[in-house]
Every structure is written in structure tokens, then in C-alpha cells.
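May I ask for a sample protein chain and its fold as C-alpha cells?
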Amino acid sequence: MDERQSSPASFGPSTPLTPPLYPSAVYALPDLDALDCILDAKEAGFIYARDAHPNAQRLAARLAELEGARWALVTSSGMAAISTLVLASVQHGQRIAASHRLYGRTTQLFQQELPRLGVPVAFVDISDLNEVKAALQTPVRLLFVETMSNPLLRIADLSALAQLAHDANCLLAVDNTFATPVLVRPLELGADFVIESVTKMIGGHSDVTLGLVCGNNDMQAELSQVRSIWGFSSSPFDCWLAERGLDTLPVRMKTACANAAALADWLSQQPAVTRVIYPGRADHPDHELAGHLLHGGFGNMLCFDLAGGREAVNRFMHQTPGIPFSPSLGHTTTTCSHPATTSHRYVSLAEKERQGITDGLVRLSVGVEDLSLIQGELAKGLE
């Protein structure tokens, strides 16, 4: 018998402790009837990995449980998750309302790409609920917000936004990447969809590129079809790695949040630092809201401004080899980024100034190292 066609190996009464990896791009079927049963959803099975594969299915199931969702779809990146959602839920001529404080690439998608496809986008200050309500007076299909804005960590009042959206017959989508479901589960507060960049804190080791969109409505089939048609599907190996990251997510978030809170207070006392931005501090504009919304910490992300602008940031980076300059976030070790030239590089100067993204702004993704080690490295850069 050809070993390639043999049944899976038997382990007797034992089972592998680590889930298996299924790298196969395509699956063999016995006949046309079996094909029909799978495609018609009468029987479980797999045919082509772009449509579905075991590692994505397993990861999605675990993430759905973590998010409190009825269904979840894993995509090739966080941006692919947003694109899948928009393409499946918004038609030509329908409007989107979006927070005017978003990740730079998300802003580009809404500002440059969607209008040329006939989908206008209105940007609003979601901290001003009256402004949001006014924007929803004209029919809007989708309201898109971030739980904690990138990079300046403004907090969205998810319950109030969900009420406004639903009163206007509008769907609410929440990018929850900075908070993760460990700190808040937006579906429980009324969100229709939750987006996560699994690449970040959920994956946790900077070795996967994945996204997630999940919900409790009846739109899974539409989103799944869009994901396959547009090629936003995930890699089995990345899904396998991300599931490993899930096992330590709660403990990583707890430690990183505690480190970030301590660092924010410490940085506020450093002469070279002119501003510290962290929701856990009383001087943050949304501190009270963050205390009500988030549970178990205020996040692992913080920002601080250095006097001296870009040159001061360069000196800081040269003097802190233990805090790598890495334009992403969520690694187990602490990394820094420069929003003005990375995440918001292609945002206009006027928009950067409006948001308060200065040339001296440094964004820290705080890791799980011993706090004294992080402080020691930061101190070198602040000399």
C-alpha cells in the first residue's frame, strides 16, 4: 500500500500533546460524492487550503471561545481581516464612518482605496459621541473604531458607540489589537465584529503574520467566501505557531501590563521626557473610561515624547541596543517604534499634527522581561 494514501498514524491509547501541523495545500478525495458532501456542508472535510485547513479551523475555534464569538475566521494579516470584513459587508455607494485616530495603513485603506471603489468614508472623533451621532444621521453601513487607538491610546466607549450604531441601523466593527480579548471582549459590549491582528500580542513572538475577524451574527458565510476569493487565507504553519502563543497570552498580558504601568510612572520622572501617554495614568484623557472598559490592566503599549525630535529619537535608539527598534508590537521582549516614520509614515503632516504624532514620539511595546532590565536599558537612551 502506498504510504502516502495510508490512514493517519495510530498512537494507541496516547495522543500528541502538541497539536499536529497540516502543511498540505490540497486534500485527496475518494470520489465526486465526497466532494459534493464537503462543498455542500453536509460533511466535515477539507479540499483546498485557501478555502479551509485544519490548523486555521482549530485556531479559529480557540479564538472564537476567547473572544466570546459564535464564529471566527483567520486571515493572512490584520489588514486582510479588515479588508475581508469591508468587502463582505459594504456595497458600492454605502458609507463607512471611521475613527479619525487609526493605524496608518487602516487610514490609507479607508482614505485612498475604498473611495475609488465607490465606498465613501467619513472620519469622526469617536470621543465626541454627539459628533458620532451626527455622522450617523446620514445612512452609514459600518462604523469602524479601535478599542485603544494606535499610537496615542485613546479609548473608545464601546457600549455607547454600539448603542449609537444600532439606533442608526449601522454595524459596529472594533479593532481590538492593542487590548486583546484578555483585557476586553467587545462583542459582549455590543460590537458586531471584532478584528485582531494576531501578528501582534496574540501570536506574541513576532514569527507569524495573521489576522482575525469574528462575530455572533449570521455573516460568517459571506466573509468566508470573500476571504477565499480575494486570497486572504492563512498559512497552516503560522496558524500552528499562533496557537502556541495562545497558551501563554493571559500570563504575558498580565506581566507586560504591569511592566508598562510601572514604566509609564518612571518615564514621567525622567528629565529628557516631555510627555508620557498611558491609559493607566490619571493624566490620560480617557483614564476613567479605561478603568471601566479594561479588566486586568491598561495594556502593554505606551508612548513618550523626547525633547529634540527626530535626532533625539535616533540618539535614544543608538544608546539602547537592548530595546530594539522594531516597527511592530507584541513581542515577548520590549521593542520601540517611531510612529511618525513607521505606522503613520504616509499620513499627512497636518494629520500627524492634529493627532499629536510628533517627531519626538516613541512608542514602546512593553514585554515580559524583568522590570529593572527594561528600566536600565531605557536609562541608557535617556542620558
